[in-house]
Amino acid sequence: WDFLRQKHETKSMRDKYIASSCQLFFRRDPLKMVRGSMQYMYEQDGTEYLDCINNVAHVGHCHPHVVQAGFKQMRTLQTNNRYLHDHIVTLAERLCSTLPSQLCVCFFVNSGSEANDLAQRLALYYTKNRDGICLDHAYHGHVMSCIGISPYKFMHGGSEEKKPDHIHVVPTPDRYRGKYRDDQMSMSELTDAYVGEVQSACDSVAAAGRGVSFFISESMQSCGGQVIFPPGYLRRVYDIVRRSGGVCIADEVQTGFGRVGSKWWAFQLDDDQLVPDIVTIGKPMGNGHPISAVITTPAIAEAFRRGPDYFNTYGGNPVSCAIALAVLDVIEQDKLRENAVRVGEHLKRRLQEMQPRHPMMGDVRGAGMFLGIDMVLCRRTRQPAGQAAETVLWRLRSEHIIMSLDGPHENILKFKPPMCFSLANANQLCDTLDRIFTEVEADLAASAAAAAAATAVAATAATAAAAVAAAAAAAGKPDREKNGGCR
Ligand code: PMP
């Protein structure tokens, strides 16, 4: 396959043969990448792009140690996991050594969706209950059982898949723009309020004469817009859910494998004594190769044993396990968690220093290599700047930097790069953002002034507030479809 089609030809073949619901990034003018190396990707014409969002290429695109491990195992043996093999057991042992000791039994699967589907099955067998609780705006996978716990998808306008009756959605504990906000109440009041919502969901299950099966959440919500939960939230929620008969599932598909830097797993960040009952992992695990896992307690695994034999054709195959072992090697050898702390903290600090100069930067949050900037039209009202954020994204692209947007208003600039992202990359990103924010803010101010002038013609007593409102309206509504949804 040495030939390369012209980009426009690839695009028209894609339009013809690939389902249109599989959306591209930058749909108006998609990129055609032909090569990747560490934190960079290269377009067909050789243009280099700095990748600030690919959390799957965790240790770097095409990292040679990972590529070599896959190649070596592929030419040696590839089969299913019904034979004894050292890779699967070594991988299980190494993964468990990063987790609390209670979490010591592994199932290997091929995607985050499969992992979250299996997690729900485990919960059913262990608790014998069916009711599940998930967070608003959550995304946990594309199979039907996971769409059912993904308001991010089933709340979408055209979705035929509605919330299943046995699933209960509670508000995402987003202190900045959630149901309870830190400009309206203290942190402890809002934590109580968000925890109270979970208690109410459990109470309503109990009132119907049933028990809870599971609570599932990421420990920092990525699709919801890089949301950091208030301190103590998960600990209190886990206690409530367990008292109601349920188990607690931590979805670490995006946030795991040291992305948060100081810990291996995001659920440990706020409280390193917190122990979920089931952890699901994926994406970074194979650095782009499909391998995922579910890790749980012996008691939960034993309850599942009552059911039929669990077989998964590709889950835990020797090639995938060799690759995942190589990923763990690189995280340790290249000290990528330490890098996430150093570079992530530096980047967050620099962004926070920029914040007072840029009214668009409503909130800067995150940990390690998982950061978000909540872009606003007005700091006081926190009105989301979806359209302006979209403009920022395209301006970044024209400077060969790839970022993405997320959150219910598509206004959160999302940063989750390969973990080898360097200090120089962080400085380049900040310098570029600083310049682009200045330009976009100037454009916004100009359209506000134009809107004010127009309003003044219509009614001589036009106020500045009206001008700002007009500018906000002109900024348009965010549209998740426009940029091809990322994740
Ligand atoms: N959980 C989370 C938090 C995710 O972000 C995703 C994928 N974006 C999944 C589960 C599903 O993973 P996969 O696409 O590998 O099925």
Automatic annotation (TrEMBL):
Record-level GO cellular component terms: mitochondrion
MF terms (GO), sorted A to Z: pyridoxal phosphate binding; transaminase activity
Pfam families documented for this protein: Aminotran_3 (PF00202)
Keywords of the record: Pyridoxal phosphate
CDD domains the UniProt entry points to: OAT_like
PANTHER family xrefs: ALANINE--GLYOXYLATE AMINOTRANSFERASE 2-LIKE, PTHR45688
Protein family according to the UniProt entry: Belongs to the class-III pyridoxal-phosphate-dependent aminotransferase family.
Name of this protein: Uncharacterized protein
Organism name: Macrostomum lignano
